Amino acid sequence: MAVPIKTISTAIAGVGLSGGLGYYYLNNKRTQEPTKSLNTTATVKQNRNSQFYDPRPFKQLTSEEIDSRLRAGQIVNKSSIQRVKAIYTTRMASNNPVEDNYSINTIDGNKLIAGVYDGHIGPNCSEMIKTQLPIYVARQLRESTKEGEAQQRKEDIISTAFETLDQDIQQRFYDLFPKNVAGVTEKQIQDAISKNPNADKIIKEAITGSCACAVYLDGDDLYAANTGDSRVVIIRQEEDGSWTGRRLVEEESPAHPAWRSHMISQHPPNESGAIVQRNRIFGLIAVGGSFGDIMYKVPKEYQMNVLPYIPYEIYSTFARYHHRIVVNYHTPPYLYSKPLVTHHKLEKGDKYVVLGTDGLWDELSWDSVRSTDGDQVSAELMSSWPKDGKDKNAATHLMRQALLYDVVYKNIGKKLPVSDEGLEMSKRLTREPSRRYRDDITITVIELNQEQEKGQHVIQEGSGPIMEPKEVDVSEPRLVKSPNSSWYSGWVWSRL
User: Fold this and answer.
1) Which pTM does this prediction carry?
2) Host H or E run for residue 468
3) For the residues of 155-208, what is the DSSP string, one character each?
4) Which SMART domains does this UniProt record tie to the protein (predicted)?
5) Of 112, 181, 211, 420, which residue is the least packed, with the fewest Cβ within 10 Å?
């Protein structure tokens, strides 16, 4: 398959740039000398005589500055739902702009749907699905209960909603271009894009990607759905007073042995060595399911006849590695949006439901992000809330404790208990570029009511802005007009 000069030149430029930066870093690292801390806002470099020397500078923060940064993204949602006291959320950026998003909504006034969305390559897809996914789920639930129709399992209804949304994201993209792209020119592609005033938005939402982890609560029935590598954990207090955390649904990740085998099984045996490399698809993307990410889903003809000619601002976000997708791209799609879905019946002792993007679980299970250790650690950390009194918002409490969990020398491969919380939190919050040290982190904690607890729950002052969950509007139209549209139509038309 011929590769456009635009793709080759971008890739070469990327290699040259990364090499130059590497040379600059190594030479500067050799000549760095530690400097003394002058005040709380000055840049600090660690003394070479410290147990583990780390030359990366940071800013020493006061306790008030630490609290301000940790609480900047916190909110709390009141609840009128019988089994829910309150819903606490917080978000901390590492990427600029932040790529994580979240949603908290009600369906029919007495059912809760909440989700966290871990975007990548940009925030566009996660921003869109935080609004659209609750609508698609609510619409699918309503359509499934029409009179005279056989009742579907809730798990299947939710799964269909996830898949339908991603099909519509893809179909909007295909609808921008001529139906047969096998022989199109660059000018034809660009002319087609210029005819649609929303083309840039549509393309960005299809090219960028996002994982999605959501829960739907109807009475005592809790459904958890996961596309990608975020996580939802149920935390409970046992009768003996101990605390346990259990993952409700597995992650879709190429690092997960069972999911990796499943992904490889969808393609011919001769592709097995190329699909997953270094626990990433083609050695590039570290998720095993997502919305958007259309460069891993399009028919083959789109790879060379369409993608290199979309607006360069968008193409440049993945141009440096596009050639690595192309050479391995034989039997698409390589990513899917179909979630894993489970059901849990709430029981006595269930205290919290924690949804978190992978940035949280990376902190709690450093040795292996697939480890179940992080599930139990989250329970142990939540067991001290709210009695420790430092953070009134449960999600902020969990974020603070996660950032202080075995992180003293995490960035140089050493793991020790924290002895100076202010010092270590200053490092975690101020080192740049922060993406080298941690990911975006988004946490939602649903505080559950026990059956015997009655009355309106009082939200503590200092929990953050108090909101009310927005009711999902199922009258909102689908992203595409045709009710029968799917990505298959783009596939078929490309061959006509």
Assistant:
1) 0.87
2) none
3) HHHHHHHHHHHHHHHHHHHHTTS-S--TT--HHHHHHHHHT-TTHHHHHHHHHS
4) PP2Cc
5) 420
